[in-house]
């Protein structure tokens, strides 16, 4: 009887290899945050996720953990007043879009994602494109990348992903086997891997790359009605990408080439310009699609959801001081104005906590008082104290003794809301599950078939170079994903790996190299052999 009682009251099974959180609690699900139903939204009591992501946000001091290497510029966004052929007010009441010709100041920060602050700008990596619009309703941050999708669809996995992509904690060298170990065991990443290992993984510069909000957001109109929306920045300068050979040649001459390109273009009056497009979808589950519209590893097909132009952005002023403006600039996916809203996209919900939490740690509790981050309108809060506070934010108070609300003694009052509140109905069990429609390879196959021949050649060459140095179990998993995506894709990857295996006898190959640079392991020996002797002095 006692044995039965012990079995009935058994807690989570734990052994010497079991993961726990910092409280010592066994982690039973490290893949999914807790959501209402498997599509979300997320709930704030995700303790394991909050502990994990908030610690991750504080790992590096003071450099950004991601997007450390960056360049920036000022400019303006000009609205068209329409979304395609229709008044934009049909879909959103956000003031920034309403009037044709209305200009809103912006600051844009471009960046690489994984590599450090002084890393070369030719490395294989997604590129960040974060836009801060100083609207009359306050700041709106549209934070995104040059690739329209992402490696993962659940924020729970973000710290692990970055850990795998960043340098090995022992050698401090990026290791392609660690990269593919994570990706092979996270098959939702295969579409992004297809893009990153193609020439799209090395944009020629910041001016000639696309930008995307990546996540799914909502637009809300004056009646409180919402639609799902995706954002796309299209460069008027055209799009250009580099092969590995071209990137290495440029890196040998200038590892700041993209920063210089942006600065020089603006300095010479050749102002870069992007057009902003949106894709719009009704706010429901869309069972007719073979993917979930909230899945950020998927592209919305343009033929089903047309790109609608809503405005243009011009960058016409360089920073006056790099540190004050570019380095201290701080963005967050949660920084939205009235008429814009969140979807239940699990990555968006996780990023919304992480980004602003990171800024409060990295720049400080009062990072929004730094001029580059401050709203270009009145700010009136009851917030007090914190490191480096230099503005009381109470100049308009009738009674400066009152730093709380509600009050009858003359403090701030709530603003009156004019547009109808958007209040979607949410019901479902709290679960930690993946979304239902999670085909991980179909769109990767479509992307492969869309590539030009030279892009396919570069993709296969880059993948073979790195995957060939991985263990067989990782190779097998990556080949299985390629086979599933497209027959040619799988066949060419398999043939390439077989050929590489014949040539890899004892050539000193190592997986410790920048992604896509298959001969990088030869560099230390080459440096010693080519180095010229010198006498001590």
From TrEMBL:
One of its GO terms (molecular function) is catalase activity. Coiled coil: none annotated. The keyword Lipid biosynthesis does not apply. Its cofactor is heme. Keywords: Heme, Hydrogen peroxide, Iron, Metal-binding, Oxidoreductase, Peroxidase. Belongs to the catalase family. This is Catalase. It comes from Lentibacillus amyloliquefaciens.
């Amino acid at each position: 009887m006692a044995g039965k009682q012990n079995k009935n009251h058994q807690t989570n099974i734990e052994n010497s290899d079991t993961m726990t959180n910092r409280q010592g609690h066994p982690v039973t699900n490290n893949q999914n945050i807790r959501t209402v139903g498997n599509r979300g939204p997320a709930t704030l009591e995700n303790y394991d996720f909050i502990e994990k992501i908030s610690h991750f946000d504080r790992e590096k001091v003071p450099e950004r953990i991601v997007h450390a290497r960056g360049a920036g510029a000022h400019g303006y966004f000009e609205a068209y007043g329409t979304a395609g052929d229709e008044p934009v007010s049909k879909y959103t009441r956000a003031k920034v879009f309403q009037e044709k010709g209305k200009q809103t100041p912006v600051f844009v920060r471009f960046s690489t994602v994984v590599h450090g602050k002084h890393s070369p700008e030719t490395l294989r990596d997604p590129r960040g494109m974060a836009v801060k619009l100083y609207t009359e309703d306050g700041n709106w941050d549209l934070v995104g990348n040059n690739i329209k999708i992402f490696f993962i669809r659940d924020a729970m996995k973000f710290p692990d992903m970055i850990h795998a992509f960043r340098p090995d904690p022992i050698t401090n060298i990026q290791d392609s086997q660690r990269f593919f170990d994570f990706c092979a065991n996270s098959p939702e990443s295969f579409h992004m891997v297809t893009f990153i290992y193609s020439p799209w993984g090395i944009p020629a510069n910041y001016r000639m790359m696309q930008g995307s909000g990546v996540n799914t957001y909502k637009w809300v109109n004056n009646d409180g009605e919402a639609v799902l929306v995706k954002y796309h920045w299209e460069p008027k300068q055209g799009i250009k990408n580099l092969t590995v050979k071209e990137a290495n040649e440029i890196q040998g001459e200038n590892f700041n080439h993209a920063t210089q390109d942006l600065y020089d273009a603006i300095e010479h009056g050749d102002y870069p310009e992007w057009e902003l497009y949106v894709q719009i979808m009704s706010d429901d589950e869309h069972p007719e699609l073979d993917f979930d519209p909230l899945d950020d590893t998927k592209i919305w097909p343009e033929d089903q959801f047309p790109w609608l132009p809503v405005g243009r952005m011009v960058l016409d002023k360089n920073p006056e001081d790099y540190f004050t403006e570019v380095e201290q600039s701080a963005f967050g996916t949660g920084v939205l104005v009235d008429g814009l809203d969140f979807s239940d996209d699990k990555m968006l919900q996780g990023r919304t906590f992480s980004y602003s939490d990171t800024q409060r740690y990295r720049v400080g509790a009062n990072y929004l008082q730094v001029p580059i981050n401050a709203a270009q309108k009145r700010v009136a809060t009851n917030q007090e104290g914190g490191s480096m506070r230099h503005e009381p934010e109470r100049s308009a108070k009738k009674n400066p003794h009152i730093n709380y609300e509600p009050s009858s003694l003359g403090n701030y009052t709530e603003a009156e809301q004019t547009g109808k509140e958007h209040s979607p109905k949410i019901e479902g069990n709290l679960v930690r599950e993946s979304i239902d429609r999670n085909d991980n390879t179909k769109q990767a196959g479509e992307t492969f078939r869309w590539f030009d021949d030279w892009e396919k050649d570069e993709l296969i060459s880059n993948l073979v170079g790195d995957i060939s140095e991985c263990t067989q179990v990782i190779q097998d998993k990556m080949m299985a994903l390629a086979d599933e995506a497209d027959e040619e894709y799988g066949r060419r990857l398999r043939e390439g790996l077989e050929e590489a295996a014949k040539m890899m006898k004892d050539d000193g190959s190592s997986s410790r190299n920048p992604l896509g640079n298959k001969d990088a392991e030869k560099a230390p020996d080459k440096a010693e052999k080519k180095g010229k002797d010198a006498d001590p002095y």
